[in-house]
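Minutes, project check-in
Item: structure for the 404-residue chain
Input as provided by the requester:
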Amino acid sequence: MDKEAIKLFREVLLTCDEMGLVGKEMFAIDGCKLPSNAAKEWSGTKADFQKKADKLEHAIGKMVDRHHLADNSNLDDTLQKREAKQVKTMQKHLAKIRKWLSVSEDKIGKGGKPIKSNVTDNESAKMKTSRGIIQGYNGVTTVDSKNQVIVHAEAFGQGNEQDLLELMVEETKENFNKVDKEEDVFTTTKLSADSGFHSEKNMKMLSENKIDAYVVDNQFRKRDPRFADYGRFKERSRKERSKYYGRKGLFSTKDFTFPEDLSHCICPAGKRLYRSGYKVKMKNFVATKFKAPKSACVPCELRSQCLRKPQKTEIRQVAYFHGRSEAGKMTFSEKMKKKIDSTAGRLIYSLRVGIVEPPFSHICQAMGLNRFSHRGKKKVNTQWNLFTIVHNMKKIHRYGLDLA
């Protein structure tokens, strides 16, 4: 079914293109996270489900023992019937978990550690949204700027969008290759995306493919001069709380004294920290590192103001940053930051919200897709494609007749 939906999507996209509804000046990529037909309470690792199954078995055993005692002492029949119904439900849940444990394995995340699976729909995922944590899918779209026609759509069972940018770019190219035999639509089309799609790997991919992209990082607003004083209320609130609770802020690097030769540094308590590394690379920076001796740091009365966790951390470490390393200056992320922080870059990126967000509002509010009703990526992807097809057909109905 998903292949037929994709084929139909491309036919509608071809009609939009022939009617001049697709401008190919700028595409915006974003995702819309929606709950699916699965409960987040049924999510966990194999260890979590094993623990849950053991608890259910223990609870069922205790309730069955109570029933035997009740049979012998002629207790209230209503209570017995209620508990018997509860035991039946718990046994049903236990059988469901045991069946899943016997045929399924943990999903492995990027770090090589198990991540949460779902008994009901193992292709869905727990996702953090503005409406809280949901169990569902991320409907990602590529939208054209001219009339907000969706040029590619796909649903993914993951909330992290960094792995999806390259796939969305390639599938968008494929759609236009099938529609109008255009080998690479991005040779003349700009691309914008929010910070969820930003990573060094993605910036490298965009640069190598010579795509004129505008993808912000999560520090974008902090560098914007229009938001220079955005944290003034937060800072005031922090100071007021500290004053109320009698707490002081932690010492920062500015509170330490560094001599010109950087042979050592002096902490706010007047103790000497010895140098543990000179002009070493720390990610994309060059820094000189300092450590405090235990003899000076452990008995210090200012530990609570110097260490975040004074009970666990023995000594304070400080780094004096000289600047960025040569490698750091040449990262693809740095190039994108420079591009996006320019006046033209900020102006172009500001168009993104007006391009990609209205189709989500149309699909979720006007068309009523507030949750996916199917299970499994294949069916959910088909449902997402069908709604985006109807969205594009409404664009034809509204704007295409005069151009036909």
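Outcome recorded: The first helix runs from residue 2 to 18.
No further action items on this chain.
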